[in-house]
Amino acid sequence: MGRRTLLLIAALVVAALGTVLVWMYANNANKEAQAGQELVQVLVAKTKIEAGTSGAAAQSNGAFEQVTLPQSAVTATDALSDAAPIANQVAIVPIFPGQQIISAQWGTTGQTSGLAIPKGKVAISVQLGDPQRVAGFVSPGSTVAIFVSGSASGTGAAAGPTAVKLLLKDITVLAVGPTTLVSAAAGATNANTEQIPAAIMTLAVTQQEAQKIIYSSGNANGATFSGMYFALMNDQSELVIGGNGTSSTNLFAPR
């Protein structure tokens, strides 16, 4: 067999191997993309479930309904597909219509006297509008990151540009209060106001985390903070605390 023939055979083998590798890569990428779109059954509250209501009672009262959602739309890893695991437990927090039913909302009767606060943590609450709480997708048991916008200490030119930065991550939501309407200025004056929905979000945090949230919820030492946004997290979220954040000085800088 001539040298040219050997080289031709080797080239064909390499080309075939390359084709197989490309196909395998594309196939794996397609499977990963479809994983988040896999449809799953999730239990959702049809009516308000008061704290202290047993799972069995809620089930018999028609308070649950089973819905089909993409896997990516499931808000917590302990979301339930049926009521059997909580039949002998009671709701330890009020559960509102539309909320996904998760294990963290249920426990023993003794837990209903208050929130089930993790050891070493405290519970604090903040009020957020719909956009700031991911359009209502944040529910008890969700893990969130908290972004804040504001200026450094000082006033006028000394305050520096307003920037948006990541304040905290991996924060657990303990409870979500009912949605209410609050007035917000619709223009430069207070003559016209509009009603916007807002809800109370209760979080499990350490002392230091609580101090950061409370500090950034208003004005302190000349610093002005004008906004707080939650972002839903999952086990693949990639967030880094630190850096200069985003302001008018670097908004259009290359990523």
Shape: flat
Quick check: average pLDDT? 78
Oligomer, anyone? single chain
Distance between the termini: 55 Å
Low-confidence stretches: 185-189
Number of helices: 3
Please count the beta strands (DSSP E, at least 2 residues each): 11
Q: How much strand content do the residues show? A: 25-35%
Structural class: alpha+beta
Domain count:
2
Would you give an account of this structure?
With 255 residues, the chain is of the alpha+beta class. The protein has two domains: 39-112, Antifreeze-like/N-acetylneuraminic acid synthase C-terminal domain (Type Iii Antifreeze Protein Isoform Hplc 12, Alpha-Beta Complex), CATH 3.90.1210.10; 122-247, no CATH class. It contains three helices and eleven strands; from the N terminus they run αβαβββββββαβββ. It has helices at 3-35, 55-60, 207-215, and strands at residues 39-45, 64-70, 90-91, 106-107, 122-129, 143-151, 163-185, 193-205, 219-220, 223-233, 246-247. The strands form three sheets. Strands 5, 6, 7, 8, 9, 10 and 11 form a seven-stranded antiparallel β-sheet that branches. A hairpin with a 7-residue loop joins β7 and β8 (193-205). The chain is flat and about 85 Å long. The termini are far apart. 21% of the residues are buried.
